[in-house]
Amino acid sequence: MLDFLGLPPDWSANGHEVDSLIGWVHWLMLFLFVGWVIYFAYVLFRFRAGKNPQATYADAKAKLNKYIEIVVVIVEVVLLVGLALPMWAKRVSDFPDEKDSTVIHVIAQQFVWNFHYPGPDGVFGRRDVHLIDEVINPIGLDPADPAAADDITTINNLYLPVDKPAIFYLSTKDVIHSFSLPYLRVKHDAIPGMTIPLHVTPVQIGEGEVACAQLCGLTHYRMKGFLHIQSQEDYQAWLDEQASSGNAG
């Protein structure tokens, strides 16, 4: 229904709600654009120089503009209260249980995405900013912590199993970034000094993009990662491969 907007494919369980809101907002903008173009053309004709050779400075008496403004305000309130706020409240209150989800720490930095998985033990190892080495340990994972021994880290490659909720905890090592998964209709800022939770459920296997939607420096345009949504079997095989190849810990 919204193909004319050129939206990317929707691979998330709740993406249709986002698309619906985007569609209604575009219809409102189209209504306003057409309405104001018609009104502008009417004003140009109504107050043309040939019809009004002598300038007047008295206010024009008309109530149409007031009625239009009232209608626009009502439509905006309906969009906000009827669609946007319920969708936001549902996403905040209906947070999945971590035991039934894929939990990933997303650490942004200029100009890459770091993804931290807890490994088979399901426990994230401790991270320490003093241990950060951009070549061998970009997230500062503490090798002295037993829980870190089986942790898995990737750069610019996000792997998710299909049909299972994914919970992200967003943070950043430097400036504000914006974690954007267009195919999953997810976007949220990563803010210095904060860890921000976010969740989504992918329902389609495929390859997508991880983008930064916030200007974060001179090479912001290069801050691009890759989203890999796999079957549960393929995802588990990937985890096993990472552990056997030495990427864990």
Question: What does the secondary structure layout of this molecule look like, with pairings?
Answer:
Blueprint: H1 15-46, H2 64-93, E1 102-109, E2 112-117, E3 152-155, E4 157-161, E5 166-172, E6 177-181, E7 186-190, E8 196-200, E9 206-212, E10 224-230, H3 232-245
Parallel strand pairs: 1-5, 4-10
Antiparallel strand pairs: 1-2, 2-3, 5-8, 6-7, 6-9, 9-10
Walk me through this protein's architecture.
With 249 residues, this protein is an alpha+beta fold. The chain has two domains: 3-93, Orthogonal Bundle (Helix Hairpins); 98-245, Cupredoxins -  blue copper proteins (Immunoglobulin-like), CATH 2.60.40.420. The protein has helices at 15-46, 64-93, 232-245; strands spanning 102-109, 112-117, 152-155, 157-161, 166-172, 177-181, 186-190, 196-200, 206-212, 224-230. The strands form two sheets. Strands 3-2-1-5-8 form a five-stranded mixed beta sheet. A five-stranded mixed beta sheet has the order 4-10-9-6-7. Helix 1 (15-46) runs antiparallel to helix 2. The longest helix has 32 residues, at 15-46. The chain is elongated, with a radius of gyration of 25 Å. The mean pLDDT is 87.
